[in-house]
Amino acid sequence: MTPVPVRSLFPILLSRDLPGLVRFYRSALGAEVGYHFGSGEEDDYVSLRIGEVSLGIGRDPGALPPSVGDRVALWIYVDDVDESFAAWTGAGGRAEQAPEDMPWGERVAQVRDPDGNLVNLGAEAEAA
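Below the sequence we write its predicted structure tokens.
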């Protein structure tokens, strides 16, 4: 089978409160709105730039809060896990696991955004 050429890949989170989740990621990670569109006065989709990567957030009034267990988690490499963890919780995110050094050489924290999505904040081994 011939591999399909992929130029880029990014996650899209679905949210009942698109403006609120956009505000959170702007506050917690310094995200900037790169693109948005909507029908009427409200956005239906927002693409955020966080450093050199993108995160999409789509409006879904029927989105359910996470049930037991997570089906997906984001992994975000940052320069300073402790600083990012503090910014995350200061912006209203929930702490799951405080920053700690992992046996494989990275520093990692686990947090949740206001919609309950699990996010790992990590520093690459050479930065940790």
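The chain has a mean pLDDT of 90.
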